[in-house]
Design goal:
The structure is a homodimer of 215-residue chains.
Chain A: H1 9-18, E1 20-24, E2 29-31, E3 39-45, E4 48-53, E5 59-65, E6 70-71, E7 82-85, E8 89-95, H2 96-105, H3 107-133, H4 136-155, E9 160-162, H5 167-174, H6 178-190, E10 194-197, E11 200-203, H7 206-213
Antiparallel strand pairs in A: 1-8, 2-7, 3-6, 3-8, 4-5, 4-7, 9-11, 10-11
Helix pairs in contact in A: 2-3, 4-7, 5-6
Chain A binds a DNA duplex (30 and 30 nucleotides) through α6.
Amino acid sequence: MSVCAALDPDELSALNRLAHTFCVNAKQTLFEQDEPAGNVYNITSGSVRLYKLLPDGRRQVVGFALPGDFLGLSMAEKNAFSADALTSVTACQFSRQDFSDMIDKTPHLLRRLHSLASHELSLAQDQMVILGRRTAEEKIASFLMGLRKRWAKVSGASVTIPLPMTRQDIGDFLGLTVETVSRLMTRLAREKAIVIVPDGVRLLDIPRLERLAET
Amino acid sequence: MSVCAALDPDELSALNRLAHTFCVNAKQTLFEQDEPAGNVYNITSGSVRLYKLLPDGRRQVVGFALPGDFLGLSMAEKNAFSADALTSVTACQFSRQDFSDMIDKTPHLLRRLHSLASHELSLAQDQMVILGRRTAEEKIASFLMGLRKRWAKVSGASVTIPLPMTRQDIGDFLGLTVETVSRLMTRLAREKAIVIVPDGVRLLDIPRLERLAET
DNA sequence: CGTTGAGTTGACCATCGTCAACAGGAGTGG
DNA sequence: CCACTCCTGTTGACGATGGTCAACTCAACG
C-alpha cells in the first residue's frame, strides 16, 4: 500500500487496526461530490472513475484510480469529486478522523501524503496542458501513454493495456465526445498504431504514439 | 504571509531569518520548468505567470500567482512549470533546503503546506472542468469570476478587477486563442456585462457572469 | 517619428460536436 | 430458446464553434 511505504512495522500494524476492507460491484458509488468526507480509501483492486458534474449534466472526469491509489489525499471536509467503481473494486477504508489522528502521531506519514498530493497536482497540471493545448488525436495518444505508465506500476510493463472505462468516460476525461474518441481510436487502429481488443488496446506503434503525446 | 498563518512568533522569527526579500521587473523569470528547484517563494506584491511549454511552442498557463501566494508547495526536486513576472514583483525567497529543515522542526507548518497544496489541487481540478467542458464564453466568465474572488482576498472585494496579464496569457490559460479572448471580451462589453478599462475590467452584470460560470 | 507589441476586427475554414442510424452483446422475461 | 430491450460502440452527414491568417489601430518607447 503506497501511502504506507513510509511506515515502520509498528505503525503499519496500528494503521491496519484502523482499516476496514470491503468490496463494491461495478457502477456502485464510493462517495459523492460535495458530501462530507467521512472516510479515505486505498484501492486494492479494480478501477474507479473520479468526476465532477456541471449543473446541466456535462461531466468532467478528473481522473481514474487504479490499484494502489489513495483517495482523500487532501483530507478535506468535503469531497471535491464523485467516485464510482468501473469494475468490481476492493478497497481499504479508514475513517478520516482516525487517519487524521494517525497523521498527527506520525509526521513522516504526513510527508508521504504531501508528496503524493504534490504528485497528483503535477498530474493535474499535465492534464491541463492536454485539455487546453492538444488536438483530439494527441489527447488520445497522451491518454494511452499515460495509462500505460500507470498500469506498468501495477501489473508490470505490457503492450496490452486494459481500458476498464467506456469511450464516454475517456471523452469526458479528455474534453471530447464519445464519437470523436471512437473515430480516433478506429483511425489509430486502421493506421496500425493500435489494435482494439475487448476491454483494452494493444499498442503496436509506441514510438508514434509517444511522438503524438510528447510533453 | 499565508503559509505562516500556522506559526507562533518564535517560529515566525526563525523563518524570517531564512528569508531573502527581492524584487524583479516585469517579464523577468523567477524560475524555469525542469530546472532543479533551489528555492521556494512567497509573492509579496505583483503578479506572476505560471506556465508549461510544449516542444513545438504551444503554451499552457497553469495559473497566475498573486500577492500572498506561495510557489514551491510541492517541495519537489524540479520545477513543474516556469514562472515569470507579469508586473514588477517583490517576493520572499527561501532556500528549499532551509525550508525543508524548518518543516521537519515544525509539523504544523507541513500541515499548512499540505492544506495549501490540496487547495491548489482542487483549483487545478476546477480548471480541468473549465478547459474540458465549457464553451469559450463560459471560460471567460469563469476566469473573471475566479480572479475576482482571488483579488478580493488580496485587496478586498471590488467590481473592478486588475488584469495584469495579456489576452494571450488569458487564452493560454483557458485553451483559447488571443483572437477568441479579444472577441468575447468585446462582446461581453458590447452587451454591457463588463467594461474594459486599462489593465483590467469592471464587472457590470455579475449575476449574468455568475450564471455563465456556475459550477 | 519609426518601431514594437498588444489589442481588435474581418473573412474564411477546419476540427470537432451534433444528430441520426445501426450493429452487436448482455441481460431479461415470455 | 427466442424475442426484446438496453447499452456500448461505430459510422455517416452536416454544421457550428472557435482557429487561422491578415490587416489595421494605438500606445509606449527609443
